[in-house]
């Protein structure tokens, strides 16, 4: 029955007198009856009140102990993301033969979850979107995620989104003051922009090149009632920075760690001539910003008289020798722009 995935694993097998009561999934009953037909095993289908298994919800490994060979249990996901009512895991190849079981276990583990996805491709391309397959559940890959009291509608198959940046987002929100003008150069569906608008009431220009992201950004601006504060712009940060955004801002958010360092001129262009703060996100092989001297040189060459690394932090480790770093840089007094 375990092999047939017929057991209601969160319920405890019961014994009374000479009977054993086995909790069977209702939808598996016809299959079980068929398997038992012809065997000499005496059985009867009854309705029974089971107690909940003590391992239920303890952890994912306990849920899967009856389904996955013990030597593979060490390969089941140790962590996963929950975005709205969708769980996203990244299964190791050894677990692929049991991906449906892992999906079902996650689904039964989290009652508010509707869909379990497996990330099968890296975050890639200009739009920084991942590739996913459905492991369990149903419905679209569109969902609404809540973060710090804000709502973000998004389709994870079309746009970038990760809840793992929430601490970084609130860190930047806390540095922003209501009188500032902010430019979110790689805004996605708007988590940095909308949080700043909602919590600080600062004016934010939100730029993204992915039309799907800008569609959701607009939806999220209305969902969070920040129409007065967030101005969505579809386009290339390089071009918009030289046009409508030139010289308007006090603060720039550059959350494109795979390539933000190629847009230092765009960040410089949107800042006011007196300067401001640049939040530069980078991927680095080193856990420290060892390339700071070359970044410093680039900002100086862009005409800034004063360039200072005010602060930096390791946001997360995204792979072996791959660190996501966030640098808070102060620039002042631009000479030639
Ligand atoms: C890593 S995602 C970050 C999105 C968002 N800040 C967040 O935290 O969810 C980077 C975003 O930059 C956008 N992007 C990439 N190149 C761009 C460009 N040249 N101009 C504007 N946006 C760009 C991508 O479409 C993507 O949405």
Record the SSE blueprint.
Blueprint (H helix, E strand, L loop, with lengths): L13 E3 L2 E3 L7 H8 L23 H5 L16 E3 L2 E4 L9 H11 L5 E10 L4 E9 L4 E6 L2 E6 L10 H10 L5 E4 L6 H10 L2 E6 L2 H13 L6 E5 L2 H6 L8 E4 L9 H7 L4 E10 L7 H10 L2 E16 L2 E13 L3
Helix pairs in contact: 4-5
Bound molecules: S-adenosylmethionine (SAM).
Would you mind describing this structure in some detail?
Strand 1 and strand 2 (19-21) form a beta hairpin. The relative contact order is 0.08. The protein has helices at residues 29-36, 60-64, 99-109, 166-175, 191-200, 211-223, 237-242, 264-270, 292-301, and strands at residues 14-16, 19-21, 81-83, 86-89, 115-124, 129-137, 142-147, 150-155, 181-184, 203-208, 230-234, 251-254, 275-284, 304-319, 322-334. It is α/β, with parallel strands linked by helices and 337 residues long. The model has no long low-confidence stretch (mean pLDDT 92). It has three domains: 1-54, no CATH class; 56-139, Met-10+ protein-like domains (GMP Synthetase, Chain A, domain 3, 2-Layer Sandwich); 161-334, Rossmann fold (3-Layer(aba) Sandwich). The strands form four sheets. It has a seven-stranded mixed β-sheet, sandwiched between helices. A four-stranded mixed β-sheet has the order 3-4-5-6. It binds S-adenosylmethionine. S-adenosylmethionine binds next to helix 5, strand 10 and helix 7.
